[in-house]
Amino acid sequence: MPIAQDPLSVEVTLPREDVALVTVEGYLDVDTATEFQHHLANQLHHGRRHFLLDLSAVPFMDSSGMNIILRVYQEARELPGSVHIISPTPAVRRILDLTGVSITVPVSESVDEAMERVDGPQAAPAEPEV
Helix axis angle, 90-99 relative to 63-77, nearest 10°? Predict the structure, then answer.
């Protein structure tokens, strides 16, 4: 039996000096969460304040992945900074909604939408523009 049937792939790009776009592909679970966390910690260490987490290629995420997202969210807020989830798959979106993570961490449909939120007013993220 293979150890990692669906290994995690994490790619980090920098749309701006203070923004890390973290594109995740594969299962984000107890077996792969440490790798994900190392990438985020490395970006925090290098002064990134805003994290765009592209989860469009993550078919499954368990509580390990959610805990890391919430942890980086708390650390980024103290900077001050932000975390945005981009295009989660339906299964991941359901978990985010059921656990309330999507209420805390904004969910965007695209990188452009997330960047607009990064640059927008920080006071009232809960109200969408009309």
Answer: 70
